[in-house]
Each structure stands twice: as C-alpha cells, then as structure tokens.
Amino acid sequence: MSIFSGIWVPLITPFADGAVDHAALRALVRRYADAGVAGLCALGTTGEPATLDAAEQDAVLATILDEARAHAHASAQPQPLPVLVGVSGNYTASMLERIEQLNPLPIAGVLMAAPYYIRPSQAGIVGHFTALADASEKPVVLYDIPYRTGVRLELDTLLTLAAHPRIQAVKDCAGSLDITLTLIRDGRLQVLTGEDMQIFNTLCLGGSGAIAASAHVRPERFVALYDALAAGHLAEGRRMFHALAPLIQALFVEPNPAPVKALLAAQGWIRDELRMPMTRAGAALTERLRALDAELDAELDAERAV
C-alpha cells in the first residue's frame, strides 16, 4: 500500500517577532508524531511558503526533517514520520531545479499544484507534471486546487498522469464528487482530500485519507476518526465527525491558516503571527474557536467518565 494514506498535517510555519520560530516548529513536529498522524506536509499552502525566501524554506524543511528523525530515535520508532514537501511555481524549468535540490533529501515525496495564474491547457499541464515526475526521485502527489491556481485538472488529465510510475496520489480539492469517485474506483492514485469537511465522505467512498489543516488543533481526534472508519465502524466515525464538524467549519471562516494559528496560539503552541498579506483571525472568531475547542474538551471528559 502507498504511504499516502491516513491523516497528514500540512504544517503551519510559526513566527516570533517576524522570524521563523524553529523551536515552536520542532514542538509541533513532536506533537503530531505523538498524536499518531500518518505524515506531515512541509511548505504547503498552510505553511505560507510564498512569504518565505529560499533560505527560510530550506531551513524550515531542515528543521522538520531533523526533528522527525530525532523524535523517531528518542521513541524507538523504526522510521521517522514521513514528510511531504510542497513545490510551487508556474515555470517548469525553475521547478525542475527545485526538484533536483530535493532529490537527495529523505522526504516521502513532493506535492505539486498545476501552474498558477497562467492557466495552461490540459496538454501543457500533462507535459508540466510529466517533466517534473520524470526528474523526481521521490513519489509525486498532485494537488488539484483550481480555486487557487485558476485551472483545474480535468478527469482525463488525472487518469493520464496516473499512468506515470512516480505519480502516486492526489490531494483532492476540486469539489467534484464524480472525479473523486472515479479516481477512487480507478485505484491507481491514492485520493487524499484537502477539503476538511469532505474527510468523512472521502473515507466512506474508499479514499485513502486527508491532508487536513484543521487536524493541527485536535490531531488525536482526526486520527481516531480515520481509524474508526478504516475499521468499518461507521456509526462511531460518524459521531466523531459530527463532533468535529463545527470546529472544522469555524477554522475556515477566515483565510487559512489564520484561524488555525489563532487556536494553536490559544493552546500555547505558537505565537499568533502571520506575514503580510495574511492577517490574524479576528477577535470574535478567535473567541468562537476557543469555545468550540472547550466543547470538545468537555465531550472528551464525558467519554472518559463513561
């Protein structure tokens, strides 16, 4: 089975006084490893990579890989937590250079969206991803997110790309049930939803997991949800998802990752800082997130008391 299953956390980049907070980043890596997530995604959209220069991106990735390795050694795990790396851009040649830089690193794969803004043809998209997958020594996860890139990966394009031996999965944010179901039934690509409110649906349809920003704040609950559904415990999984749904919805009321960062800051993991043009979540939303988080705490206490 492909490693691209289960709950993956697309790591935020914590800041302190404008600089990357590497100590907080290390603490988050340990937190999610201890919670049992399947893997981490570094430098994805949630990590604000567009606001990081090349040196900062390299340093963030180095910290994540180093802490994952250190945690595995300290906890006697056979392997570090897998790390998927986001690679963004709209010029194939420059992305090929980035792929060559990543090839020697101990990463699980690369996550790549369609070229943004320029809106190439589907033939251009196939050529772009094929060139990058040919150059990569690591597995490739396609990122279908048309509301950010301006172009969608059509079904025929996805099925064509699925024939490439290094293209192994898709982060599915296209909002098309037909495409999601067809890819799952086709079986060549592992389908991980990137829309957190679709986690339950995707897993019930036979999808392999999720790359879920909201799993930052309650990772154990998301892992338990996945485990319940993977074991066929539909009613238990439905109950868990219904409990998580209000928090998931609230975490996307304002642009990601501002709400996630606000709640992580309230929990004491990071400072509530973003880089412009991203701004902090509003005070009203932050209070709502705190209240929803407290409600989940109360539910967990009730479960333990039974």
Automatic annotation (TrEMBL):
<dbReference type="InterPro" id="IPR020625">
    <property type="entry name" value="Schiff_base-form_aldolases_AS"/>
</dbReference>
<feature type="active site" description="Proton donor/acceptor">
    <location>
        <position position="143"/>
    </location>
</feature>
<keyword id="KW-0457">Lysine biosynthesis</keyword>
<protein>
    <recommendedName>
        <fullName>4-hydroxy-tetrahydrodipicolinate synthase</fullName>
        <ecNumber>4.3.3.7</ecNumber>
    </recommendedName>
</protein>
<keyword id="KW-0220">Diaminopimelate biosynthesis</keyword>
<dbReference type="GO" id="GO:0008840">
    <property type="term" value="F:4-hydroxy-tetrahydrodipicolinate synthase activity"/>
</dbReference>
<comment type="subunit">
    <text>Homotetramer; dimer of dimers.</text>
</comment>
<dbReference type="GO" id="GO:0019877">
    <property type="term" value="P:diaminopimelate biosynthetic process"/>
</dbReference>
<comment type="function">
    <text>Catalyzes the condensation of (S)-aspartate-beta-semialdehyde [(S)-ASA] and pyruvate to 4-hydroxy-tetrahydrodipicolinate (HTPA).</text>
</comment>
<feature type="binding site">
    <location>
        <position position="46"/>
    </location>
    <ligand>
        <name>pyruvate</name>
    </ligand>
</feature>
<feature type="active site" description="Schiff-base intermediate with substrate">
    <location>
        <position position="171"/>
    </location>
</feature>
<keyword id="KW-0028">Amino-acid biosynthesis</keyword>
<dbReference type="GO" id="GO:0005829">
    <property type="term" value="C:cytosol"/>
</dbReference>
<feature type="binding site">
    <location>
        <position position="211"/>
    </location>
    <ligand>
        <name>pyruvate</name>
    </ligand>
</feature>
<dbReference type="Pfam" id="PF00701">
    <property type="entry name" value="DHDPS"/>
</dbReference>
<feature type="site" description="Part of a proton relay during catalysis">
    <location>
        <position position="117"/>
    </location>
</feature>
<feature type="site" description="Part of a proton relay during catalysis">
    <location>
        <position position="45"/>
    </location>
</feature>
<keyword id="KW-0963">Cytoplasm</keyword>
<keyword id="KW-0456">Lyase</keyword>
<dbReference type="InterPro" id="IPR013785">
    <property type="entry name" value="Aldolase_TIM"/>
</dbReference>
<dbReference type="GO" id="GO:0009089">
    <property type="term" value="P:lysine biosynthetic process via diaminopimelate"/>
</dbReference>
<keyword id="KW-0704">Schiff base</keyword>
<dbReference type="InterPro" id="IPR005263">
    <property type="entry name" value="DapA"/>
</dbReference>
<comment type="pathway">
    <text>Amino-acid biosynthesis; L-lysine biosynthesis via DAP pathway; (S)-tetrahydrodipicolinate from L-aspartate: step 3/4.</text>
</comment>
<dbReference type="InterPro" id="IPR002220">
    <property type="entry name" value="DapA-like"/>
</dbReference>
<comment type="similarity">
    <text>Belongs to the DapA family.</text>
</comment>
